[in-house]
Structure formats: C-alpha cells, structure tokens
Records
---
Amino acid sequence: MQYVVVEGLPAAGKSELLGLLARVYPDQVRALPELVKTVVEREGIDLFRERERLTAALAKAVPERKRAVKDILDRGMICVEESHLGVHWAYSRALGDERFVAAYRDLALLDLAPPVPDVYLRLSTTPSLSVARQEARGTPEFFVDEVSLRRMLEALQEWHLEHGTSLLTISADRPAGELVHDVESILGLTYTGEMTVPDDVVDVLLLLGRPASGKSEFIDFMQKCDRKRRWKAFHLGDIRVLDDFPILWEKFLEDDVWESVTGKRRDSRPSGGNYMVANDDLWPFLIEQINRRAEPVLAAKTPGSTLIIEFARGGESGYRDALERLSPSILAKAAILYVSVPFEESWRRNVARYDEARRGGILTHSVPREEMERSYGVDDWPALAPGPSGAISARSTVVPYATLVNVPESKDSVVLGARYGDALTELYRLWVGLDPGRSSSNNRTKLP
C-alpha cells in the first residue's frame, strides 16, 4: 500500500502512530498531519464558532494537500495521512452544522479527486475511552463529548458506505506495541536499521541532449526520488550536479559588464531578448571548466554517490569534441545517457518553458531561435552512437551509452519513471560489463 488515511476518534493515537512511523522509517514513510487541525492552527480559526471561515480555508487547503500527497507518492514513498474531510463532514452532521454539510458537496469534488487512498485505516476505540483519553491529554479546545462522538461514528459509517471506500478497522484499545506491529504489517514495513550504502550505482552520469530535451527535468525527478528507489530502480546514488549552463550564463552577464565599460562584447551577443554564443571557443572553455570543477568532487566522492554532468552540444562534431576534451578521471568512471528529441520538438519545449522573469533558471531559460539553429540544428550524436545503446571510445577510454527517446512529452511521473528506468537499467548493465578497474565503487564483472 502506498497511500493510507488513518481515522479514529479523538485521542485514539493517530498522531502518535504517524509520528512514530515517520521517525522509524524515514526512507519509506512520510506522514501528513490532520488537515482540519492544521488549517485551524495556521489560520487561528475557532473550530466550533467560525465554521464558514473554516470551510473557505479548507477549500484553499485541499488542492495543496493533494499536491503534497502526489509528491510523496512520486518519490516512491508511502504516504500516511491523518484523518480526512469525510470525518469533518461526519462531525458537522453530529453537531448540526448544515452549512458545512452543504458546502462539502463542492469540497468533495476536490477531496475525492486523485490521488485516492488505497485504504482508510480506522483505529477503533469506544466513545467512552476516547473521552477518558481526551481528558488525560488536556486539550479542552478540541474536546468532543461522548454523545457527539456516537453521532459522528454513525455519520462517518454512512459516509464510507455512500462513497464505497475501502475501510479497514483495527483495535486501538490495546498495548501500543501490538497496534504498531499490526500497522507495520498492513503497510508492509520491515525495519532493517540504517540503510546500507549502495555499492552498485553509476559513479558519473554524462547527461547529454539538445536544449529542452528533458535533461533538467530528469535531474529534478531524480533529486525528488526516494533514495532507495533511486538506487534500486535507476542505479543512481546521492546526486551531485555539474551543469555548464550556469557557467555560460555567467559569461553572458560578464559581457553585459564589458559592454557597459568598453562598448563591446567579447563572447556573446543579444538575440531574441536573450543571448547567443558569438565566440565558439566558449564550447571547449566550458568543458575545461567542467574538468576543473569535477576534480575536487571526484576526489571527495563518497561510496553510493553519483555525479551528474549535464551539457548540450551541436554541430558536425560537437559531442565528439566535447567527449575528447573531458578529463580521463571523468571518462574512466562515466556512463552516458543521451536524451533524444527532434530539433523542432526541442524548439517547441524551449519556447514553452521560457520564463522571462527567471530566464537564467535551469528549468526556465530559453535559447533564441537563431542560436538553436546555428548551434544545435545539427547534432552528431546519431553518427557517434548509431545504436540505442552500446559503447563509444573517447580518449582511449571505452564509455557505455544509452539513448533515451523522450517523446512524446510527458509530465506523468509513472510514465517518466518507466522511461528512465528502462534506459538506466540497460545503461547500468553495460557499465558493469566493462573493465572492473574503471570504477572503485563496486566489484564489476565483464559481460559474457
């Protein structure tokens, strides 16, 4: 199960249980607090007297919560959420708050939209035990009497029947250890202690492809991915990134300064509200900068980490020239993932992602059409690596590669996860099949 909502009467132990799971299983579980309580405390709302204000605040908060759940699930983690708006609806029925009951018809469209819980897990206690625990807890601002609790349970059962939910009930009236053990079993959690450092990850990933092909989105996906999933599904460790775009952008901004001082630019010129390269010596300059910046990273590299080096090149020998200039220390540990999109698709995405206010951002910058055609219209990757995967030679070093066809465009994490996983699995298979001496991160054997 990946998404579980835990419900129950007040003081049944929901918050304590979720907090414990999140602390004991930090690589597997993320816990979200009760939305109504979070909104009440954040907005300073009186739970029993300011019901209309609470309803308005919840209408804004539900989409935010849905995004938070999706983000957790996209990372491959288990999302455990405390309570849900169906419980609040049931309390409203019990307390005679017909305004919220009516308002929930609209909120339900948001509340029941995907992601949908795999199961609602009820921690069952009697109303009388809930009252005793509430009194012991000492939170009178949230106290609910026994009569109201009985009415709420009846309404909540009606809510589950109406919406056809998957409801699982377990007793919370027992020793805490027994309750925790049952929930661990339901979630499929097994405690293994501190996660071992992965020894089977690619040391250096050269991430290549045209502008806006999806390289930065790939990095963003992997950085948000759960560490264990990134290791097992994608063969990548803790990520460090070297991207030559920020170095190039700094040269553009330096030229703005030179122009203000001398009236002339040195390496670039304005184009289409942005910049383009006017000095082709910048391309080898950027590779040499990568070499220099990668050196201390590789020297300090820890087991279980991956250095991603990202750049785009064009021209009849753009990628060949770049690879031949990369340092042997990089190539000896590298595998290449080329993200492939046609030129016109690259241009379309390039235009779509442009944000003028953040034009120097990794995910928001744009390349002018003139620069796209001149620098990236011709791409030598198909000639350099004609097959979907294999190996190429650079500076007498054999480097494995895989070409990831990144069309059609997708923002669906499930689609992207499968797409990335297929390419990286093949790339890793080739990488471990080369000379074991190329990397110190693991013991590798040659492919048969």
---
Amino acid sequence: MLNGQSNSLIIDDEMKGSNLVSIILLTQNAQIPTYHLPNHVMSLIPKEIPREVILVHYNILDNSAYTDKKPGSTYHYENIGGKVRHLNVQGDFASAVMRGIALSAGKYILVMDADHPYSEETIPELFEELIANPNFIIVVSRFVEGARDQRMSLVQSTMSKVGKMIARYGLKVKNVQDPTSSCFAFSRNLVKDISFEGKGKEALLEILVKVKNKNAKVAVKEIPIKEQGAPSTKKIRFNRILNYLTAVWHIYRYGIKSKELQNANDVVEQKRHKSVLFLSKAGRFFTVGASGFLINFIVSYLLANVVSNVWYLQATLVGIMVSITTNFVLNKVWTFEDRDFSFRHFFKQYLTFLAFCSFGVVIQLSLVFVFVENFHIQYGISLIMAVCVASLGNFLLNKKFTFGEKIWE
C-alpha cells in the first residue's frame, strides 16, 4: 500500500504475508537475458516486499537455458530476499507469458521482456502504480507523452499505427495507446477464471480483451517508456506481421464473441458448427464450379463439332453462358439452399451472380498479369494462385451479396 502523506511504500504484516509480487521475465537467449538479470530485477523491489522471479526462456530450440542452473529449479537469493525459478517454454512470447502467469504465486504480476533495454526506473514505477491502482492494468507505453525509446523507421511507424487501428476498431481496445507492449503489470484477481490461449507475441492484447469481457470497468493506466540506450532498430519481419494478424483474428473469434456465450462448451460448439458449415458450403460451391467447367466444355465442343454453321467462338460463348446458368441454379438450390424462385428475386440474383462471375474473370486475368510481369512467377503457378484467389472471392461475394448470408456460417 502507499503512505498517504509521502506516497512511499509501506509494508505491514498482512502485506508481508499475502502480497507476494511475481516478476515474469521473458528471454529468447539460451543462457542469460540481454539486459535484465533476475537477481538485479529483484533488487529493484523494496526488500520488505516478498517477491519471486520466473525467468522464462522461449523459442529455445536445443532445450538448454541458463547453463549454470537446471531449468525448472528454484534458487534463493538471501541478500535480496527472493527466489528465482528458471523455465523453458517451446513457444512464442505470449505462450511464455501465460505459462509464467500459470506458475506464479503472486498477488501482483509484473511482466517484462528481459531482452529489451528498459531503464531501471521501470520496475519500481510499475510496482508503485500497481499498488496505488490495484484494479488497473499498468502498461509501459511507447505512445504516451514523455516516452523515450528507440527511433522507428517510417515503415515501422506506419505498421505500428496500423496495428493500433486494428486493435482499436477490430477488437474495441480503445482505452490504451500501446496494446502490444511487452512490459505491463496487473493484480492476479483481474485474470481469475479467464482462459488464455497465448498466441504469437500479443500477450497484453489478449489480456486486455478478455479482462474487458469479464469486467468492462477495468481501467488501463499507461506510463511512458524509458530505455537504457538506443539500440539498433530491428527490421520489419513478415512473420511478425503475420503472427500479429493471426493473433488478432484468434482473439476476435474466441475473445469478443465469447462475451455472448454462457460457457466454454458453447464457444467450442459454435466454432465447430460455423467452421463445418462454412467449409461445407465452400466445398459445394467449388464442386459446382468444377461441374460448370465440364458443362462448358461439353456444350462448346458439341456445338462446334456437331452443328456445322456455328463458329467455335460462338460455341464457346454459349458454353460459358450455359455453365454460368447451371452454376447459378445449382448453387442456389444445393449450396445455399435458397428456394425462392419468384421471377423478380430469381432474375435479380442471376444478374448479381453473373456480375460477380465477370468480376472474378477480371481479377483472375489481372492477377496472372501482375504475377507474371511484375513478380516473374511462372505462368502455371501464377494461374493456380490467380484461380484460387478469384474463386475464393467469387464464393465470398456471392455468399454475402447474391444469397444474403453471413460470411462465417
């Protein structure tokens, strides 16, 4: 707790016995963290505060970490009054964070990327803010006034802003400027009875979304980041972008939508049902497309070879129109199970279907040209990629607009 007169930390017997602080340090290094050693981090907390450090090594391929200490063991540091546990996790940052939280025993939890050059002020400031605001999530932010961190390139700055917009408008995380921070703190009771997946690097983002679903009144307080030095700027990696988008999509589907469900069994069942239904309709749509190709070939071939006065291009055009019509009827009846055959409704749907098919042809031709001319990809591979993109777009557009269904069902 805080002394009301001096704002300094005071410790009473009750706090000493129950207010254990768990500091979860994350590192990708097989031996020691780049910047923050566990015993030094513990020394930044007042000695009167019971504390522990869980040093989590993640993405360690050879399963070795801290060569002078056995992973999984606990070591006591008498001079600083705490203990350190060493742990290996075969996964990314978020899974390492969640594993560390699961193994921690503290009432208060501080998470820090030990390979990032946060200043020594960070841990004490986080801790003081958390004690003063136990129902807040405290975030060390790069985007609030007073932040002092490494400069980002224009590309990095743009990607960071795009990531913030996705979190703000896609996941409704509007109460924090830096939802992807790797340094934050919170009270254990805020995450009680919440199940976390731990995907990619977005540990804080998942915590923010799921805690908000549980208790919309939970607030976030951001403190400006301060760094020890000015490390070289890391390059933007495609995997980092892909992992972020994957994590956002995963959190969106299983975080935001879980608010509307009563229990975890409903979530699993709804996910399975929608996935099966979506894949079933996609399979039917592409099966109909394959049948349309066959019908197109048969009609065009017979007209061009049996009817002597039909030009082969005319035969091809007739074959295309017949196959589009059969595709439309089969998709209407079989794929989307639409039984409304009133003339106006049927004709409107047919014209919409025809328009999207034509649009799909334009997309396919454009993609083939771009892949071959700009990216110098072999024609066969370019054609396959273009057909896949155009077919998927055709399916989604017709599903949404021609037959009036939601995309994911």
---
Amino acid sequence: MKAMVLGAPGRRLELEARADPTPSAGEIVVRVEACAVCRTDLHVVDGELPGPRLPLVPGHEIVGIVTVVGAGVDSIQPGQRVGIPWLGHTCGCCTYCRSGDENLCDQPLFTGYTRDGGFATHVAADARFAFPLEGFADPIAAAPLLCAGLIGWRCLCKAGTGRRVGLYGFGAAAHILAQVCRWQGREVYAFTSPGDVAAQAHARSLGVGWAGGSDEAPPDLLDAAIIFAPVGALVPRALAAVRKGGRVVCGGIHMSDIPAFPYRILWEERQVLSVANLTRSDAVEFLAIAPRAGVRTTTTVYPLERANEALADLRGGRIQGAAVLVPSV
C-alpha cells in the first residue's frame, strides 16, 4: 500500500510504501476509493490538536471497498462499499458509552488522529464504525458526507427546529447542510469571510436566501446559528444575530479563543453549545436523509500524492465545497 504520512506536526506529509494492513479481530481492511480532506486534518497536521499518534496517516472521510474481514465480523462482507468517519472506536463501558453518548467516550480512537486514516490506498477500521454505502454510487461525491455531512447534521439537531438558520463559514459542512435545511423548508443565511464573493455566490446557487460577510448583520434575527469556521470571535457575533431564546452551536473540534462579550447578548435565554464528534446513530440517520434530501456535494479532486497541495488550498480558502483525495490505481 501507499500512504501520505505525517512524521511530526507542522511538517509536510511524505509518501511512503507500507505493507498492506492486516485486520485484527473485529476489524476490516478497506481499499480506499476516495478520502475527503477536512479542516480537522489541517488542525492535526498543523499541530493545533494535541497528542496525535505519530507517525500518522491522516484522513477520516473515507469511502472504499472492503477487501478483508477479521475474525468475528459478520455484519460486513468483502466487496461492500463502506464509509469510515472520524470516530473510529469507543470503549463501550464508560459512563458515556453506557448512556448513549459514545461521542464523549473516555477512551476513544479517532480515524486519522489516534489511528491511521484514509490518506492512503488501504486502511484498517473497526467494523462497528464502518457504514454500508450501497446507495451511493459515486465515492468521490459521498466522501464529504462522512464528516462534513455527519457533524453538520449533529449540529443542526442541536440547533433545534427554528426556521431561520445562520451558517458561519460556508465550506464543506455548510454547503451540505444548506441543502438539508432547504429540503426541510428552512430559511438559510450564509456568512462567509468578508469579501468572499465566490463563496457567497456558491451559497446562493444552493438556494440560500441571504449571503454576506461574517462582519455583517443578517436582515432578520436568526432562530439558530451554527459556526463551522474555527474563529472564536464569531461566537459573540452570532449571539448578537439570534433572537431571544436562540441557540449558537459551535461545530468545530478546534477554535481560537472566544473574546469577552457583554452579557446582554447572552441574556434572554440565548444558549451557546458545542458539538463533539458524532455517534453511530448520527451516521445512520444522516446517511438515510442525504439521498432523500437530494444532497449534491461540490468537490475538487486531487491525486493522493498531492495531499499537501490539497491541505494548502484548504488552508488558503481556495476550495469551494470539499477537497477529495483519490488514490491512483
């Protein structure tokens, strides 16, 4: 197999040849067809998330074909197309796992962070955290659903049922979630980096009713706002944009510090929530909803060997939708 490997935080990924993975009990081996590039991958590569398992193969929005199943695996068969997300293993016995909050597990493993991920031609995965994708014919289009879609869906569930939803940071997650919101009959307000007219035009092309800079106030008070950009200063701006009793949901794993803000914009029962990881139930729900909602992902494709270029383009804000790595065969 081939893999793009992170040797130390802040360094470029290096292409390596490795022995093909062998599944342990309860695992599968997948031949990677596509792996989308997430902003969390940037945080891992840039050293903003502590304690990655090095050397590391990043990548956690994986679509591929099962080639080998390990002992004890009977729910997945060789030849099946599956998706592998960020949450790659949970202990199953801590307080959180036992209460249905496995996304908060005390001893988790994360794909592309504390276990090797999908910036490779092959990957081993816990079979319990691999999801059949029989209804998804295009692996490139499906790859962004495995994190951008899943975490966006969990954020939307936390945001509540309000009609007016603001999305701060119109990248991979927001461009998927905007389509789901429109399918649900909601009004969507897209907030981009100030002056990013291309991202605003992309938002409007997906049916978003209003698009503007994150430094602008929306024309109407929002019922909820979801922040995907890793910018802490957006929290008070979003609070000022939501109505009384409104919610602001922070969807990123990493965010810069939130600055001090006046209590009056939190008062009147406004709430600030964070979303951590995802559960398998989130994946099952969203992967059933995405086809019904007619979600279409916007992707820019890179060969696996150009993973560093994909990361640089994402870091520089040059990607509309999602970047996707495709191994050459």
---
Amino acid sequence: MNAPFSPGRTAHREPFVAFVCDEATAESLRPIAIEQGWNPEKVNKGGLRNAVQTLSVSASPNVLLVDLSESGDPLNDINALAEVCEPGTVVIATGQVNDVRLYRDLVASGIQDYLLKPLNPDVLRETFVQAQAALSAPKQADATSERPHCAVAVIGTRGGVGASTLATSISWLLSEKAGRSTALLDLDVHFGTGALALDLEPGRGLTDAIENPSRIDGLFIERAMVKASDKLAVLSAEAPINSPVMTDGAAFFQLQEEIRGAFECTVVDLPRTMLVNYPHLITDVQVAVLVTELTLAAARDAIRILSWFKSNAPHTQMIVVANRVPAGGQLEISRKDFEGSIERKIDYLIPYDPKTAVQAAKLGKPLAEAGKSVKGLAPLAEIAERVIAYTDAAEDAPKDAKGKSKVDTGKGGSLLGRLSSLSIKLPSKKK
C-alpha cells in the first residue's frame, strides 16, 4: 500500500487472500475467486482485525480484500493495515457505509477500490480485473532500473574521526539532493550511531538478521528498515554489550544483496575491524570514503588501509577525507607531510565546526543538513556528487590523471620509514 522500497516484487506471495466479516460475503466471494484461478480457501473470516494480525507475521498477497463492516474508524484501521501490509499489494475494501467522502478518503489512503455490500458479482469481477492490471502495469521505479546501484563504504582510520557523521551526511545527500532511494547500513552492532544521528529508534532488525540469517529476504528488509524520510531508511542496532556478535559474516553479505535489490544507493558505515573479519563486504562496493585526522596514528592506519584496498579491492575507488581539521594550523602533522606519508593527495578537507555539530545533534539532523549554509561544510556535498559520478558512469568518472586517485603503495620503503619523515608539531614550552 505504501510507496515500496522495492516496487513490483511479487515472488513468494499468495495471489489472493480475503478477510470478511460474515458468511454471506464469503459465499458470494468464493465462486468469483475460483473464476480468477484463486484458491477459495483463502477467503477467511475475521475482517480487518484478523487481516492485521495475520499479515503482521506473514507475507501479504498480491491482491487483498478486507471487510470494514466491523470497523469503527475505517481510515485509522486502514492505516494500521498499511503498517503490516507488504508494499506493492493491491488492497480492495468492502463495507456497508455508503459515503462518497469515505470512499474518497479510502482511495486517497492507497486502496484500489471500495465496494458496497452485498457484493455484486459483476462489479467484483471488474474490480479483480483492474487489480490484476495494476499488478502487471509498469512501475515508476522501472525507469531507473538501468541505473547502476551505488554502493559506498565509509571507514574511519581511527575511532572518533567522524566516519559515522560523514556516512549519515552522505546518505542524506544521496536521498535528498540526488533524489535516490538510499539505505544506511550501520554495521557497528553495539555502538552504532546511524539511527541516533537521525533521531530514530534503531529497532531489532540488524540483530535479528545476525541471529537468523535465513529470515533475510525482501519482506524482512522492508519491515526491518527504519524510515528517516521517503527516500532514506536506516538499518542499525544497539545490541547489548554483553552479547558478542557470533556470525561468519553471511548475514551482512546477504543484507547487502537484499538492500541492493530494494534501494538505489547503499551507504555502509563500516568499522575498520570489519575489513579484517569480513573482507567480502567490500566485494560490491564501488567507492570507499576513508575518513582520517591529521595525526601520526591516523597516518599509520591510513597507509595500512589504503594498502589493504590496493591488494584486496583494487576495483574500489578511494576518496580520502581529512575531517575535523582545527583552524589556525594547530596540527600534529601538516597536510603536506600526511600526504607524503600516504603517497597520495587528500581529496577533501573538512574543518572542525563544533557549533554546527552541536546544533545537528540537538536537532537530530545530519551534519550536511544542519550545516547546509556553512561554507566550510561544502565538501560534504562535493563528496556525494563525486560518489554519484563514480557509480553512474564508471568509464567517465573523475579520474586522477596524475595518479592521485590510485592507491600507490608500491614505491618501496617500510611503513616505519614513511612515518619517520613526518614533521610532528608539538607546542613549545614557554620559559
């Protein structure tokens, strides 16, 4: 009923199910169902309440007929049905109230048609024909089906560099500015902040997926994702810290596969330890955003992570972002020395802006949204645009003609040797 994340998916569904309040309606419905090639046993007693209870634990059919005769507030009850009804289902309502305003409100809420009782066989046949035509009609999302899926991983060189903040902002920009349905997958199972940054409750979707990978399918994704807006949804968790993650990584990989079929873009907030434990998560990632700070420890880990990508995922385009850079040049390592150590340029530099960061946290908004008028945060939008450019037209994507976009760690020299040439700026002691 609602705008689907994966429109038109009809596999593994019953073609027709009905929930009616009285036997007379059931008897008039069964022969018409047989004519359509449907199972007459799928005509159930119980009305709308039974429909909500049943569909909350099972997949909804392609065509659903519900009886509103026992409903005291049909509009609110239809909205309750929409919460459990799988998107893409064609819903037909029937009832005893002959009210044009009610009919218009019900149709506006997303149902296909509203039929008065007692049911007229000819009208019922025509309605079912229209329902099946609606199912087979081209979906609006089909126009974008040829557009390649955009998969981005955001990784921090160290804890606290702001990788999660950037992941949330990139997700928001892809959904709001680029207009693409986007999923934010926060794989920090115990301490993830993806939902928190958007002022949402994370739910149990991610932990359920880890505990029961066999449950992961399109319907699971649609119900587990927490919607932040019409085009942005989050899958996050706050698992108890006394419950270690016991998985071989198959659940994470399967989640990515299902999300790929349901959304146009996937942004994975990927803790760096995942590269060690589950390297297959990068298999289908086209762009990796490496978020760092200008410190000695971050330089060491940036070298190691860039080298890992060169060896294990050479197909992935790398974007290096120096985040939370303090003003006034008070840096542990200069930008020039940092770039020399990692043997490539920093693509974007984002200044430290505590005022905007605090405002974003208070409002429950991404940093890119709260600071959209802040000049220093303009690189956030540029990063999102570059991600789109890479994924939409790989052959024409921005290339570093001078080799800047390539991770070149094969120039010789040890990690210690590269770090030893850095100029570390320490505050001088006053006499």
